[in-house]
Sequence to fold (313 residues):
Amino acid sequence: MRRGNQSSVSEFILLGLPIQPEQQGIFFTLFLAVYLTTVLGNLLIILLIRLDSRLHTPMYFFLCHLAFSDISLSSVTVPKMLSNMQTQHLSIPYEGCITQMYFFLLFVCIDNFLLGVMAYDRYVAICHPLHYMVIMREELCDLLVAGCWFLSFMHALLHTLLLSRLSFCADNTIPHFFCDLNELLKLSCSDTSLNELLIFTEGGVLTFLPLGSILGSYIFIGFAVLKVPSTKKICKVLSTCGSHLFLVFLYYGTLAVIYFFPSSNNSQVKDVIASIMYTEVTPMLNPFIYSLRNRDMKLALGILWRKGVILAK
Fold:
């Protein structure tokens, strides 16, 4: 129940990106191009994996889900941001804001878990190559992906339910381009200690669990390579794991900028820029990293292109 001296907030105002009005057109074109590249590139990855039977392996199964999650993550925030930049209609309904926050938390968490699962897959492939297909059987892959979705769903739902019980005062301005959980808590008139405790504990566990899987997997991979060091083996490991490691550094690097580095006078601008990195830039780079550096993906793309040319004729 809201207290009598509090006004009910029916909408929020998203201030968007900290850019000058005369630069709106340039940044609108840039972010629209990034968003279209993200959607089309990741859709291409999903299409290639679905059509080419040689890509029906655990690694590409996880990559397919990562591509879908990247499309969804960008689609949760970017269209609304582009609409605001074009129309200058900065408001978003209360229900729409809560819904956006829910799906943002959902897909960020799924990305987080999938990166951990993909690291484990690379560990099994390199450290136990003879037992790879036995360990990474179809049932285990389905279970791992289902676990990622279930835990992410519960994570987002829990934060959403706790946020929905809070009251909001007259100040409804969010200095961000989407409904960020931390910014919404700052606007609340209620006691947010439980929400903050949940972010610190449950959010920390769900972040460090896949991060621990990633670090542990690559430590064992490093030991396996160092046991029998050879240039050929090192090149093979870098080819297999390089794409995944790059995404890991980019993803967790931007999160570290937001949550672990000391705040400064321009911390708000820093947070917005870091958010753009993992909501737009990282999902856009995913198809380029995995298609340009991966021989199987390039081969599948070539076959699809030749079939398209033949059909066109």
Summary: The mean pLDDT is 83.
